[in-house]
Model the fold of this input.
Amino acid sequence: MQVQNITLTQNNYSSQRHNPNFTAIKSVKCDGLYKKYPELANELIEALKQNPKAMEFCKKYDVDIIFYAIKQYQNSVESSLHIFFDNISKSKATRFFEKVFGNSNDKIVIHSWGSGYSVPRSIEQSTKEMIENMILPERKVGDRHCGGLLNDHIESTEAKIQKVLDEKAAKLEKKLAKLQGKKDAEIRTQNAASDLENSIRDLIEKGKN
Done:
């Protein structure tokens, strides 16, 4: 699958758009084979709604979401979820130009595969895998744990964003401290100059008496 092609078309969401009316989700598109299997695409959307961490992420950042599926070798199917987000750790100018030129790397991508020897069976498998092991939060099913991959990606992404924000805040604090120090030094110099002037006047007055 050519993921970069999806990136270049992320602004063309006017057709075949689902709008679950989430807080900060700008668009949701079901593309590739999911155009032919809308019932499976709907299962993915419903699963995403059930992930609190994913919904919280969508409330904090403007996002565009693409569910995508493509036929692979011998009727196997690759499904993928692409979440393009507005990276608040970047400047507005940087975000603007990245969107204009379609070269933003600010996205979360997860994949799943199905191999049922027919496309309908394969996409059912890849969709089920995407839901149970990728989109839904980690949970125990029987004697094993499953799910949580999307949440792992979200946590990693937010950690990187927060690290950059913290670094910028530290730089700003250092810059403000430097400016404040310079301002304090200027005030001290002004006060010293004023004291000197007063001392000179006082000396002159004393010299007259």
About this structure: The chain has six helices and seven strands. Residues 1-22 have pLDDT under 50 and may be disordered.
